[in-house]
Each structure stands twice: as C-alpha cells, then as structure tokens.
Amino acid sequence: MKSQTGLKVRTVQFKPNSRNLFFHILTQCNLRCKHCYINQDAQGKEILDSETIFNWLKIFANRAVSFEEIPLEGNFRFKGKFRLPHEHVAEQTNVIFLGGEPTLNPALPEAIRYARDLGFRSITVDTNGYLFHDFLNKVTPGLVDNICFSLDGSTPQTNDPIRGHGAFERCTQGIREAISGGFNVSVIFTVSMLNIHDLARMPHLLQELGVENFFIQVVGIRGRPAKEGDYGLQVGRTLWEEVVPKVAKEAASLGITVTYPKVYLGKNEDFSCAGVDGENYFVFPNGRVYICPLCEDLAVHSFEIKDNVLKLRPPITELDLIALNIPEGCVMNKILHPENIPYGESGEVLAKVACCMLKEEVRPG
Length: 365
Ligand code: SF4
Ligand code: SF4
Description:
Number of strands: 16
Low-confidence stretches: none
CATH architecture: Alpha-Beta Barrel
Bound molecules: iron/sulfur cluster
Keywords: Iron, Iron-sulfur, Metal-binding, S-adenosyl-L-methionine
Protein name: Radical SAM domain protein
Number of helices: 12
GO molecular function: catalytic activity; iron-sulfur cluster binding; metal ion binding
Cofactor: [4Fe-4S] cluster
Order of helices and strands: EEHHEEHEHEHHEHEHHEEHEEEEHHEE
InterPro entries: Aldolase_TIM, Radical_SAM_PqqE_MftC-like, rSAM, rSAM_sf
Radius of gyration: 20 Å
Structural class: alpha/beta
Strand order of the largest sheet: 1-16-9-8-7-6-5-4-2-11-12-13-14-3
Strand content: 15-25%
Mean pLDDT: 90
C-alpha cells in the first residue's frame, strides 16, 4: 500500500511456501550483550563441525521436511491447526546462520558453500561485526545474500553499555569493510528501554554507512535477561507506537527499507502465529529444534535432531500450546509475559499481541 507520504507500507505475511531455517551453529560469543537471548543450559555449548552442519542442512533443504515420530503408547497428540513438516511444501528455503557469533565457528564459510550447493534460496549471516577467522575474505558476495550486523545505538555511548566496550567501533568498521567488499549489508537494532531514545538517530548513521536495509527488533525476555532479571528492558505499547513507526518512515524517506515487528495489533488486524502459519525452525547445537522463538528457554521444543534425523517429540511441546485460539493472540506471550498484554478495565483485550516474526515493512516510494 502506498501511504500519503509516498512510502510503501505492508504487513509481511507468512508465506505458505516459504521456510526459514535459523541455524545456530554454536552458542559461544565474544560479547555479553545485556539482552542476549542465548541460553547455553537449554541450547548446548557444542560447536558444530562442518560434517554435522552439512547433515543438518540436508534435513531442511528438501521441499518437504521429513521426520520420524517418537512412538508413545496410549498417548495422543493435540496437533490443532499446526501443519506438520511433511504437510508443508516449501518452494524456497532461506537459511540464516547465527550463534552466538557464527563467524567464531571456522566451519561457517564451508557451511555457506554447502547451503548454496543444496539450493537454499537465500543465505544470511547474522553477526556482531567482529568477523572472526577473516570471514569476509573466505566468502564472496555471490555466496552470501546478506550480512546482517547487530548495532544497538548510533554512538558508542548508547551501543557499548549494551553490547560491550569497543563493540560500536568494531561493528561499524565491519560494515564498512563488507560494503566495500561488495556484500549486501543490513543492520539490526534491538529496541529496549536502554536505547529507544537513540533510535531516531539511526537512519542518518545508516545513510552515512551506505546501509540500505534496516531491521528493527523488539527485545525478548529470554536467555540472559530471563535468567538475570530483565533490567526493565521492555518497551511498553505507547512508547513503541510513538517511536518505531515514525523512525521507520524517516529511514524509508532516506531510501532505506525498514522492517519491524508489529507487536501490538490494531482492532481490525488479524493475528498470525509464526509457528502455526509460517514454517520456521530454530535449530540449536544440542539438536533442539523449536518453531516458536519465545519457547527457546524451555524444554518444550517440538523436534530434536538425533543421529542426523529430525524427530518429532512427544507431548507436551510447543505444538500443543501455540495452536490454541485465545483472544490475546500469542499463547506464549500470555503464558510467559502476560504483562505485555493490554487489558481494559473489565478484562477485555485491548490489543492482540503478536511476536517478533510478524513484521511491517516500510519501503522508499
Ligand atoms: S552478539 Fe548476539 S550472541 Fe553475542 S552476546 Fe550479543 S546477543 Fe548474544
Ligand atoms: S511467540 Fe507467539 S506468535 Fe510467535 S510463534 Fe510463538 S506462539 Fe506464535
């Protein structure tokens, strides 16, 4: 839809024939960000070697993902609306390599080449910008569709207290090197109470760096903040709605394409669950496979990879929970973060809540 400002705004619907594989090839990282979502107790500390990465990539490369069910006598599965992997047929699969810091895994360049040979539609690397193991010189722009750099502030003063001393300098240096090497670069900014005041300054920094795609993300209370206390990181509805859409439009008017999660849905907007309506797999080094990002701290993963075979786990898993139809929209927010849901005085739901996967996109006109 073209808005009055001449910008194109659209909700990015989950595509029925598109699959996303979020592949955590290790959980180790050189940084210790305050909002880090990694939980090594739940997700393992293994650094996957190239052979394991190849085998696991093969599981998700086919048009339909096959799996084995762990048989359970006298039990049943409440599958609800969820379509099991073999019921999805993906025309295209996108792989996102992440960690921890994925460039710390020396197998990453080989993994990228293998994913390209297997025919993945797009290959993205999410990095904190330190680009270990001479990463940029081991791959080419033709192999990697997008390198996505995490930056949580337009200056070291905002970014570094969140991500660590020196992180701003290293990340912006990495962005410059990647752009001058011909790579397609994007930036992801995780909005929290620690940096929302600075979001409006990001579009100009991105313009100066030459970045054309900007992802605004909502902080999730999982991993470190869930374990250590969330430091009041979460941004409430009013502030989110005041700031984020406006900055997105400002960035788009500078020629930058912006994607951000809707989080709070208007009365006439349909709720869509990424786990039910999309086909997303969040794979961790210990073999756990989740379909809902909010569940990643919990042992409710739907699948696990054992001996390089994808296995559907017995109930109770995410599948049994997320397919429930509730007035609040997202079941896992209701269970884990009920404080996110706005209720009226008589208990009515004022806005359905969606997760970080349901996005709004604002493009230059
Ligand atoms: S860079 Fe990513 S993985 Fe590393 S500490 Fe920060 S959020 Fe966690
Ligand atoms: S966080 Fe909520 S909306 Fe997102 S996949 Fe999980 S249950 Fe669905």
